[in-house]
Amino acid sequence: MSQELFINVTDYVHRVAVVEDGVLQEIYIESLQRKGLVGSIYKGKVVRILPGIESAFVDIGLEKTGFLHASDAALSDQSHSISDILEDGQSIIVQVIKDPLGNKGARLSRHLSLPGRYLVYMPNSPFFIGVSQRIQEEAEVERLKSLLQAQILASSLGGYIIRTAAEGVMSLAEDKMYLDRLWDLIQSKAKLAKQGTLLHADLPLTLRSLRDLVKPKTHRILLDNSIAYNESVTFVHDFMPNTIKKLELYKAPEPIFDRYGIEDEIEGALSRKVSLRSGGYLVFDQTEAMTTIDVNTGGFVGYHQVDDTLFQTNLEAVDTIARQIRLRNLGGMIIIDFIDMMNPDHRKQVLLALEQALANDNTKTNISDISPLGLVQMTRKRTRDSLTHQLCEVCAVCQGRGKVKSIETICHEIFRAISRVGVTSDGRMLLVLASEAVVERLLHESSDILNRFETIIKKTIKCQVENVYSQEQYDVILR
């Protein structure tokens, strides 16, 4: 499998597309007006202890206070009671592990992690050496552990995770020295800083993608901005010298994401419905609690046996589901409603195919067995906002319901409003303001009802089109 990175840099947003074997798999977006905070380290102040939910609110200088759970606050195994760990007014160093979302403040942790190219250093953790699970050869795991152990003093504090990018490297010394210097700098800043001060921010998206996303299978990194390209060359020269030959500056007049079809893919990832090649389709419904994915046969009737048709549709859906989960960056609980399969072997094969399709996902997933109803429950760790949350907002018309009231329903609401206003109020006329479609129905299909209301309330009822009104908007005004 080959990988390419396409990096689009503008004055207002940075975007990184991960393409594997010519197919877009992941998209990372960082708005310069609304940059993510994950990885940022602050000197905070505990402003409220909540023993009932074993949590605390911490002021880190943002609009909303951050949320710190006891499990993320305890630096030892001695106590997990939030009242024993923290006290009001206490100064603490915390790291953002989840960006603010909606009315919720940032999720915080005292278990700091400082990522380098090959290592992740956790200065507040007990000493340990871990290795990425994606490095599967036992001999390589032991070699890397021994390599790092030889460079760590006996008095060293904190834990280390050896990242996937370290596979095959011969030295971890420079990466460790860089992380040691970085931690010393953060500590020095913290001693002098006021509460609510930013101590450290992670790299910008462009450089972060080079550090975190480049792998041995990456054969090209294409950037469309000369300044970002020069910064990347400098960064790669210092930390990833073997990657310099993979960097290219895109100079064509056509926008880079248009040239490689990425813009269309992003638009498609915001759609509720995704078509399958066979004629079947998937329906994605994302809510605050979970995401559901419904598999449908659609127009696919390609096999003589019904069981084979359902099996092949589910099997085809698996690859698309795995790709869309990564592309949309869906997190939390995900329920996949596969088409019911009576054959137990078919169920096992579909589940195995799903596990294999998600094996390339860098984000941790857990998958349950297929239930008798054909449902698969899985979880995927939330690492950042989903693509929908990043690029969309709640619809002003339907208020996030995904539907609007029918014209008939709005007309019925208007009749009820006429009943309330007309009978109990003085005046000679009622004016109904509504959208064109609603007024059209009132004056035609519902004209007899309006006439009866005029007789009952003894007032004239007039209807007027308001072009700026949505289908659900209306007013009944007494004159």
Could you characterize the architecture of this molecule?
29% of the residues are buried. A hairpin with a 4-residue loop joins β4 (41-50) and β5. The chain has 14 helices and 24 strands. It is an alpha+beta fold. The chain has helices at 70-73, 82-85, 138-149, 173-192, 205-213, 226-239, 256-259, 262-269, 306-328, 344-357, 387-391, 407-424, 436-443, 447-457; strands at residues 3-9, 13-20, 23-31, 41-50, 55-59, 66-69, 91-98, 107-109, 114-115, 119-122, 128-131, 159-162, 197-200, 218-223, 247-249, 273-275, 281-286, 290-296, 332-337, 365-370, 375-380, 429-434, 460-465, 474-478. The model has no long low-confidence stretch (mean pLDDT 90). α9 runs parallel beside α10 and α12 packs across α13. Helix content is 32%, strand content 28%.
Number of strands: 24
> What portion of residues is helical?
25-40%
Counting DSSP H or I runs of 4 or more residues, the number of helices is 14
Strand sequence of the main sheet, in spatial order? 16-17-18-19-21-20
* Global mean pLDDT: 90
- The shape, in one word, is globular
Low-confidence stretches: none
Q: How widely separated are the two ends? A: 72 Å
Rg (C-alpha, Å): 29 Å
Largest sheet composition: 6 strands, mixed
Q: Report the structural category.
A: alpha+beta
Beta-strand share of residues: 25-35%
